[in-house]
Amino acid sequence: MGSPSLVWFRDDLRLTDHPALRAALDRGEPIIGLYVLDDESDGVRPLGGAAKWWLHHSLASLAERLGDRGSTLMLRRGRASDVLPAVVDETGAGAVFWNRRYGGAEREIDRGIKERLRDDDVTVASFAANLLFEPWTVRTGADKPYGVYSPFRRAVEKMPAPRAPLPEARKIPGPSSRPDSDDLDAWALLPTTPDWAGGLRETWEPGEPAALARLREFLDDDLGDYAFSRDAFAGGATSNLSPRLRWGEISPYQIWHATLEHRGSGKHAESATGFLSEIIWREFAWHVLFHSPDLATVNWRRQYDDFPWPRLNRAHLEKWQRGETGIAVVDAGMKQLWHTGVMHNRVRMVTASFLTKNLLIDWRLGEQWFWDCLVDADAASNPFNWQWVAGSGADAAPYFRVFNPETQREKFDPHDEYIRRWAPEHLDGGAPEPMVDLKQTRQRALDAYDRVRHGG
């Protein structure tokens, strides 16, 4: 038996369509799975509370699946640049394989580890697995990155079709002896004092099997209605695949090809096209982050550095966070977020617009709250979408677009199903008075944006 291969799992907690795992299988030696909880390296953003909950359960599922197939999952906590070489020495690994990451700090970490291990004559290889189009491969005619979605979409549609997904690894040879591993429970990823995750437990089942089941269910039962009811706040046509993609329990290649197979004609074709455009929107977010690694903290449009944010009204921020604004859709969305770890996509835009434009609170504070509360918060989509709503981002919504929560409610929740589920106090007279006047605060926001646009 030769030197084992290490497969370093990151945001790819699956056994299907996993190029790094496939490379290890092809090498033909025993395989050790490794996950490193790195919340110490400079520039790596610590996970939010809801994300930690999901990670715990997804790792437990992955460990069980690896064990069932003959291998093992090794857990270590610390700086990845320290942990990887130490684990290689400890296990005698002759090769390390991983799927690529695209954040700025993560790329630097991976580059340093690759150089160090290769200097020690360890085989190291990385692979494309979590994006359909790697960010540096999509360029404008002037050889620059894209900053507008529509031409980006047209560009990727002209590129070679995404490869077919790789089959599931059903037999994975493990080492002769189980390597030492951290105890998952000792990482304390689950909330205990208090345990606020009851809503997450009743809403989600993390792990690859549940991800695959949800994809099949969505394609069989919901895809046909996607184009026509995806914006309905209480509708069931949304895919609910975003946390699965964020944690890599399923790959975009699997989703892409399975959707094409179900496309058919008529409303299914229209819905499939609309759904795949959302996958491309995710690609665009990562494209932007790759070229602007500080997207979560710095305005993509630097002219917005001069935006006249007033002094923070902390009471307003806290009412928004608790869903006590007196605005029905906003309150319902924020309570859905707290209970389930997700929020309907259009409601996300409404709540974000209300914070940044009606309350004139810096988008970074909203982005951070979502980062802590969302099970699907990833380093690209979360800040990208917040900047889109705030007007400071790539392909941003027009600065003068201020979502009117009442208009949105009338259009997308006409029978108050969503409000009844998440903020019933707005129907029985128990809601607080609206904290601001929507019309007046809209005009205040437009005046502030005009000053930025005209340099005043």
UniProtKB/TrEMBL annotation:
Residues 3-132 form the Photolyase/cryptochrome alpha/beta domain. Its cofactor is FAD. SUPFAM superfamilies: Cryptochrome/photolyase FAD-binding domain, Cryptochrome/photolyase, N-terminal domain. InterPro entries: Crypto/Photolyase_FAD-like_sf, Crypto/Photolyase_N_sf, Cryptochr/Photolyase_FAD-bd, Cryptochrome/DNA_photolyase_1, DNA_photolyase_1_CS_C, DNA_photolyase_N, Rossmann-like_a/b/a_fold. Keywords: Chromophore, FAD, Flavoprotein. Residues 161-183 are annotated as: Disordered. The keyword Cell wall biogenesis/degradation does not apply. Belongs to the DNA photolyase family. This is Deoxyribodipyrimidine photo-lyase.
